[in-house]
Write a structure and sequence with these properties.
This protein is about 20% helix and about 30% strand. The chain is α+β, with helices and mostly antiparallel strands. The protein has one domain.
Length: about 150
């Protein structure tokens, strides 16, 4: 079985109260241990359109990436040649309204990443050859549109 392992590092700033305003900051950083086949960039972001008034760029955290997202979306910034502005990072840092919300986010994130890693393991271990075709002078191609290819 392939080794898909990730380390999650949780940092928190607990209950900042200033003039009756409370905040709770949660940061999760993902790293891959040596020998792991897992990509630590599992957090999916959506880059919103540039603010026309001040030029600000806002990246919105949307959740833990799926196995397909890992293949489709680049790391670090959106691909400017694509129509979709999604990309992946190895870190999230969010300000939340309560300790309860932060605890829930931490729990759900662990579950989603565990599920992602299990899917990656299954995909790696269950891959099987379902068809083999020999193309060229030695084999029968059985391909219907070979005659349309010009030489």
């Amino acid at each position: 079985m392939a080794a898909y392992l990730l380390h999650l590092h949780k940092s928190e700033l607990v209950n900042v109260n200033y003039r009756y305003v409370g905040a709770f900051r949660l940061r999760i950083v993902v790293t891959a241990p040596v020998g792991s086949l897992a990509d630590p960039n599992v957090f999916l972001y959506d880059r919103l359109p540039i603010n026309p008034y001040n030029g600000d760029i806002v990246d919105l955290y949307t959740g833990v990436a799926s196995a397909v997202d890992l293949a489709d979306y680049p790391v670090g910034a959106p691909d400017p040649t694509k129509d979709f502005p999604f990309f992946r990072l190895d870190t999230i840092e969010l300000d939340l309204r309560s300790v309860t919300l932060a605890d829930q986010l931490w729990s759900v994130t662990k579950i989603q990443i565990a599920h992602l890693l299990r899917v990656m393991e299954i995909m790696a271990d269950k891959m099987a050859i379902t068809e083999e075709v020999v193309i060229g002078n030695e084999g029968d191609t059985n391909v219907s549109d070979v005659s349309s290819i010009s030489s």
